[in-house]
Records
---
Amino acid sequence: MFILGAILLLSVLIIVHEFGHYIFAVATGMRVDRFSVIGIGPPVLHLFKYKGTEFVISAIPFGAYVHIVGMETPDEEELREEQRAREACLAEGKEDETKYLFRNRPLYARILTILGGPLANYLAAMVIFFGVYTAHGAADRTRVEIMSYGDDNTPAEQAGLKPGDQFVQIDGEAVQGDDANTLLINAIQSHAGQTVDFKVLREGQELTHQVAIPEEGRIGVALTHPRVSVGFQRSAITAIKAPFVITRDQLTGLAKLIRGKSKAEVGGPVAIVHQISKSAESGLVSFFLFGGMISTVLGMFNLLPIPALDGGRLVFLGYEMIARQPANRRVEEMIHGIGMLALLGLIALVTIRDIGKLVD
């Protein structure tokens, strides 16, 4: 049940991402000939057609995609046919039918269309957070507690820590106050490879547990903040800020990982679904909060300047803005193709690893 809910949530967030591309493409005068609302690959079920866009379900039932006409690099024959069509329209006094192609739209329209997916994820995260904050209060960032175990038999679980435990001290060092999340993570990492006392607050009572922190400086828990009641205005302001706070923390962690100052593992779709299902076991509030975080991370990840991702495409559009001419389309297509193969290979590897961990 929890696994199905996790898959559904992740799928919806991917659909939201693609819907963002679709909305901006249509709004800026492009043509979208297909929107696969469920799945990738060839269509297997045609749902309906709306304003020239065919809405379908595809063969591989995970994720979604939109096909914007004119995004692919045309060959010489296609370019010649496009030129003939343009000249014919001009000769007949008709509107140029080739102006609807992605590659023929103004630069600002192409940038907005690429940005549309990540923006939709950030907006979805804000809506999720606003709903949670309004109904159940906002996060008190001066305190941190365990939302769920990151996996089975983690160091935290072995030591007797439980979801809902609020961290007070680690080896006598306070981990409550401004930016408590950073205080906690730094305290744990500074005692990597040691067994130290963790003082936690559980149901109003302070308890002390000895935790053996592994060398990588992680105790295997997903963290959250306790909730405090706030008004409508505070809920809205906090919800708008939350995705940017998450983005800052994620990028800070990524920078530390690149510099070798922290250790972490890359998780694929299986690991993400597993983590979402774990959060669901802790209740609907944790489930939706984790969903808001995943929506944010999905938007942020797609903005990274990696070939085949939205951020990689924005790099080429940025070059076009500076150079006042598009990059070589063949080179761009080749780079994105290599990036996509590398990305799919990485996803396949981490998925196999994640499945192996779950069946151990």
Note: Residues 141-225 form a domain with the Pdz3 Domain fold (CATH 2.30.42.10).
---
Amino acid sequence: MPRTKRVARLLHIPGIGVDRMGNKADAAHDPQMLRLENLDTDIPPPAIAIDVTRAAIDKDDNNSYLPFLGQDALRKAATERVSRVANIQYDWKSQCIITAGGMSGILNCLLATVEPGDEVIVTDPTYAGIINRIRLAGGIVVFVPLIPSSDGWRLDIKALERAASPKTRVIVISPGMPTGHILTHEEWEAVTKVASQTDAWLLYDAAMERILYDQRQVVHPASFPGMKERTITVGAASKELRMIGWRVGWVVGPVTIMNDIGLVSISNVVCQTGISMAGVAAALSTSDDGLPTAVSVWEKRRNRLLQELEGLPVIPPHGGWSLMLDVEKLGLSSPDASEKLFANAKIATTPMVGWGNSAAKYVRFVFSNEPEERLIGIGKRVRKALSI
């Protein structure tokens, strides 16, 4: 019988919690259950993406391993997207790789940049999937707090400066996920300064960069002086384009690192989903991807949720698909609060255990997948379930 001792790289990887709550909600088969645990959305992808994908199924070129780094049309479209947002020109042939989803791209980048024992700075809270991938790559996670307030989150710049060390190899920033924190220009300046001082890579998870509320504007870190050479941008079709099941992402970055990321990519997932790439290329290239309308809908849902939970310790998100409730201030642990919400209010949420040093006090509410009318009255359900 094989040895059953767990391998060391998995000892500090607890999972993400979303899968357990999602499976539990699925098993309930209850149409009254509010699905606020998982980053899905009911807003469809661009129509052109669906039409092009249907046509792609019949094309033999899409039933192939080749080209390993992604189809040319998609590499061109993804490169154009990043170039336009960052206001920097990238070359699609040497500076873009297509990946099997954004998180696959994140792992490929970490495996190409991190030696065992290197330090990787992330915000706290941050997505558990990113934390887990850093540890799989052999990196040491260094958390920098996000400071919550009734006005939203802000980066603890002093803590960021203290976190920097000669061992800092990568800084990972993921705007909007999971807290809804969107970096200000001042906060980006602080991040880019630390990256330059420590000679670190800045790994920018751009999957939600344009999902912004209250008329905020995108600030791309590569646009700061000297940052094009050290910023690696990872995008995905899952959020802004609402193409979750397509499993397509992209990496755009400096020529000096792209060959290594490509080598990891070929050694990891090998290639992307052939029948998905043409649809994503079409969605990236269309003049109407539906995002402004989608953001308007998500913002109304956010506002409804904030209105319903007014008076409770929630932190308003400035972007993304989710917000946090500090249940510790209500005298509860997040697993207990999540269970009470599920059992007593038919609300599926995710406890933030494993999402950072301070994250376990929070329960996450995702507002991207439930229509606003289904959120009416959720405040009463939450208060009753948690005995507030």
Note: The longest strand covers residues 140-149.
